[in-house]
Amino acid sequence: MDRVLLTVTGSKRLWDELSRLKKQERPRIIDAIAEARAHGDLSENAEYHAAREQQSFIEGRIRELEVKLARAEIIDPKDLNVVNKVVFGSWVDLWEDDGNREVTYQIVGELETDVDMGKVSNSSPIARALLGKDVGDEVEFSAPGGLRRYEILRVRYDDDST
């Protein structure tokens, strides 16, 4: 089995989600199914079918989180004893040549990826180009939109720099 890389913050968020699903969402949906059953004929009961579908989704997500968290390796970049080097979990301030602007990304695992929040997967083209590089380095890589160039301006290791 492959290991699942997580930041400290990402691990906490996923454990919190798992707890919420088990303690709040699961009991809520069980109650909704019981209430829908009380309305009689299940074959034409849209509320019952919607609740069962939601239950299936919740149970699937619970199983997924349990499996992934059991294989999780939590990496705190502050424990890696590096300075100004891009590593898993670090926040990287970059100068984007094409956009003539500064952008910031955090390199995270697949489960934490959220491009809108600046969290890019460690297996993405930009992360693969950045990992191991130092402040001042320039990186170039092929992205779906074409060739991209960035200069590394700053690297931070605080886990939640948003």
Structure characteristics:
2 domains; 3 helices; two-stranded parallel ribbon; alpha/beta; Helix Hairpins; 162 residues; 38% helix; single chain; Chitinase A, domain 3; 5-stranded mixed beta sheet
Tell me what the structure shows.
38% of the residues lie in helices and 25% in strands. It is of the alpha/beta class. The protein has two domains: 4-74, Orthogonal Bundle (Helix Hairpins), CATH 1.10.287; 77-156, Chitinase A, domain 3. Helix 1 packs antiparallel against helix 2. The chain is elongated and about 70 Å long. The two termini are 32 Å apart.
Short structural description:
This protein is α/β, with parallel strands linked by helices and 162 residues long.
Per CATH, the class of the largest domain reads: Alpha Beta
CATH superfamily descriptor of the largest domain: Transcription elongation factor, GreA/GreB, C-terminal domain
The biggest beta sheet, please?
Answer: 5 strands, mixed
Q: Care to count the β-strands?
A: 7
**At CATH's second level, what is the architecture of the largest domain?**
Roll
Number of helices: 3
* Helix/strand order, N-terminal first: EHHEEEEHEE
Backbone CA Rg: 21 Å
% residues in beta strands: 15-25%
The end-to-end span amounts to 32 Å
Low-confidence stretches: none
- Report the helical percentage: 25-40%
Q: Give the integer mean of the pLDDT values.
A: 92
Which structural category do the helix and sheet elements fall into?
alpha/beta
* Strand line-up in the sheet with most strands: 5-4-3-7-6
What's the number of domains? 2
